[in-house]
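Input.
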Amino acid sequence: MNTLAPVLEALTILIAEDSAADLLLLSTIIRRQGHQVLTATNGAQAVEVFTRERPQLVLMDALMPVMDGFEAARRIKQLAGEALVPIIFLTSLRESEALAQCLDAGGDDFLPKPYNPLILAAKINAMDRLRRLQATVLRQRDQIARHHDYLLHEQRAAKAVFDKVAHSGCINAAPNIRYLQSPYALFNGDLLLAAYTPSGDMHVLLGDFTGHGLPAAVGAMPLAEVFYGMTAKGYGLAQTLREMNAKLKRILPVDMFCCATLVCLSTQRRVVEVWNGGMPDGYVHEIATGKRTPLLSRHLPLGVLSAQAFDDSTEVWPMALGDRVFLLSDGVLDTANASEQLFGAARLQQVFASNRKPDRLFEEIEQALAVFRGEARDDVSMVEITLQPGQPSRAAEPLYADSGQSCPLDWSVSFEFRARTLKSYNPLPYLLQLLLEIHGLRGQSGALYSVMAELYSNALEHGVLGLDSRLKRDAQGFAEYYRQRNERLTQLNSGYVRVHVQVVPTATGGKMTLRIEDSGPGFDVEQVLARPLDIDRLSGRGLSLVRQLSSDVRWTDGGRSVCVEFCWGALA
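Output.
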């Protein structure tokens, strides 16, 4: 015995049929299947009933008075919009052309006369499944759209914060920086940061996080925070690198890290200090000779190694005024053409070699990429920093908001830093923060830090380590000097640097006396001071700088002790 297919769900079904007998027969069959029935005797009535009742399925006779089934089907489909309302044509037509016309008019299936209840039930269930599928797809599409809008809103908010953090330094204000960044996604996985130290040196970081978009930008926020905070306080590259690595190692998942190049460009010392961990080679471009010195990657990226295994050693290269440092991300080299060939380092070198106007280097690289017909697979970032004269020391922003009534005016303190401390600790940021408690010194913070840095460096390198600055006669000697510095510092097991600070009030304001002593053999102060200022562009400027920036300076104890003074007027 034949049985009807089980009903998935009771439906409201519209039957449009001009034959009273067929209408009665169909209504009876469908009601027995458990569905609710609506009826119409012509196409116009069918459209009217559909508009009013919104049935879930339509059985439509093709040939009816007033309005035929074809036109009624078209109008019903229009009224239904995106929702699927299946239309099954009831027809006695047998020609292929006529049956095709049923489908072209918007029908989803057809049922030939005379009606088979079993086939009818199966077709209704099949159309119901399609209707349910369409409804599910539309519902999921709307959910995805809402989720997409929500994510875009979150990303815009996060990007607004990210842009303020990532560009809170001197990127857009410094006259000696040119850069190009083209984000592969809404967020750029590449990070470019720049800031001045209290002494006027410029720290620049170009980083490349694994991945793109928001996940890559998440790690950039704490990295930028450490970079700007420690640079403003006067920490060197080594201390900043260690802190950034430790923070990323602590917060990032194991499959995320940051390739980075960190440089310190010093106009006063005419040098660039470089640390490269996993980034493509950067270059120091000597304008006078056209020579390009590669800045090789010698370290693992930030966030990979533990604090104990991390290597913070840097390289130092001499620079003349007008020389440039060029850094880039791997997005430049990984640009591919239609044949999946990479742009690569060799083509980049060809652009370098053919460049005759350094100011147009960026444009020429972009043009070369365009001619290569490359499509970016990654974030593309380039930055060029020029060593320019006349960049003064940047005074730190006030760190305190009190009125000055609690300012210490009459005090002294002494420190002795011994071998184990000298190996790894830079006391200058701490000393600067201590001295900035004196309100009268805050306007001189840049000059103060420059003098302290120069005197401490001389005490450590020439006094304790016994290095001879005359090694820095050329680029090779310069590299040898810093190789010996690192080697002797690693092996250091004795010696000291003492720092004495005395602050006294005066009739017009106050005076700070800073004395630095070392355990070295000393030097002939008069002979060194008698040298012409520009005897060697690679060294010999430090003592002259100290004399220019401080109120008074004098050496005692055979050059092993130096004393400088800073004065200030009464606070308004």
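Residues 117-166 form the longest helix (50 residues).
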